[in-house]
Amino acid sequence: MRHPEWIKVKSTGTHETKKVLRHHGVLTVCEEAMCPNQGVCFSQGTATFLILGDRCTRNCSFCAVASSKPLPSDPHEPERVANAAHELGLKFVVITSVTRDDLYDGGAGQFANTVKSVRNKINAINIEILTPDFKGDPEALKTVLDAGPDVFNHNVETVPRLYSAVRPMADYRTSINIIKTAKQLYPDMKTKSGIMLGLGESVPEVIAVMNDLRDADCDFLTIGQYLRPRRINIPVVEYIRPEVFDEYRLKGIEMGFRAVASSPLTRSSMGASAMFAG
After folding, report:
1. Predicted pLDDT at 195
2. Does any domain span residue 150?
3. Residue 14 reports pLDDT greater than 60
4. Residue 1, pLDDT score
5. How far apart are the C-alpha atoms of 110 and 204, rounded to whole Å?
6. Maximum C-alpha span of the chain
7. Where do the DSSP E strands lie in 45-91?
8. Integer Cα distance of 173 and 154 in angstroms
9. Contact, 196 vs 234, CB < 8 A?
10. Is the distance from CB of 100 to CB of 70 less than 8 angstroms?
């Protein structure tokens, strides 16, 4: 399907940001997941750091990240991420990862070490982490949260009915529960989640997910259009019109979310600092 006229991605210079990232040997989900906004974000000196390698142990059909046997985690990676964030002059850092079901803690320790390294390197920094579900392990979750991120983000991605096609190795209720548990463990910490549209979901199903997230005391919500990154990924069923995204945003505010970003090109980490600042 051709992109409709309301989906237009700006192409901007990204050389300096990429140069810093390559110098420090760090990855970004912007590149690995083929995010349509990476040119805009890179031109502004922002990026979402991807830790624990570029190989995922799961095979979500929407994702462009490679699914294969991962390499061992790198103990020096947290320091490299901190150095890159420092050189880029960031005051708000987003850290995410591939899913590492092969690790005993799902990579929670690497998340915690990266958060600590960034805080040690940069004064007055705010940190958002976007994590996998850790198979619902509360100890892994606690390890990450004890490191002191400002925002805990975990995306539900789609409606429960579509999980078998979109997230075949994940469980919807586990994703909802990890957000709920995070808020219970650290009530003052902001929690966040995101969902993609255009995979065949209905409006009532999206509203039901939003209600589930509010019941889990989720603070922030992002809603964006799924765009097929490669031919091997699941196809787009429908391109949702911008006014529908606006309606979801208003509905989310009415439900009690602190902030809702909803538009065709909204992505989980884009504008994260503005959302946090409120």
Report:
1. 98
2. yes
3. no
4. 66
5. 38
6. 47
7. 48-51, 55-56, 66-67
8. 12
9. no
10. yes
Query: Cβ distance 108 to 133 under 8 Å?
Result: no
277's CB contacts (< 8 A; 6+ apart) are none
Output the pLDDT for position 74. Answer: 95
Number of separate domains in the chain: 1
3-state SS, residue 120: helix
Lowest mean pLDDT among 58-67, 79-88, 138-147, 159-168: 58-67
Task: Give CA–CA dist 80/221, Å, rounded.
Answer: 30
3 or 83: whose pLDDT is higher?
Answer: 83
At 146 the three-state DSSP class reads: helix
CA–CA distance, 250 with 156 (Å, rounded to integer): 20
Average pLDDT over residues 209-231: 96
Q: Does the residue 98 lie in any domain?
A: yes
CATH assignment at residue 65: 3.20.20.70
Neighbouring C-beta atoms of residue 130, cutoff 10 Å: 25
List 56's β-bridge partners, or say none.
Answer: 67
Q: Tell me the angle at which helices 15-24 and 77-88 cross, rounded to the nearest 10 degrees.
A: 150
CA-to-CA distance for 70 and 100, rounded, in angstroms?
8
Q: Say if 10 falls within a structural domain.
A: no
**What's the whole-number average pLDDT of the chain?**
91
Q: Which of 61, 121, 63 is nearest to 96 (CA)?
A: 63
Please say if the pLDDT value at position 128 is more than 70.
yes
* The pLDDT value given to residue 106: 97
Local structure of 128: helix, strand or coil:
strand
Per-residue model confidence as pLDDT tens digits over 77-99: 999 999 999 998 888 899 999 99
Cβ neighbours for 122, distance < 8 A, ≥ 6 positions apart: 82, 85, 86, 90, 91, 93
Cα separation, 113 vs 77, in Å, equals 9
Range of the domain at 57: 15-277
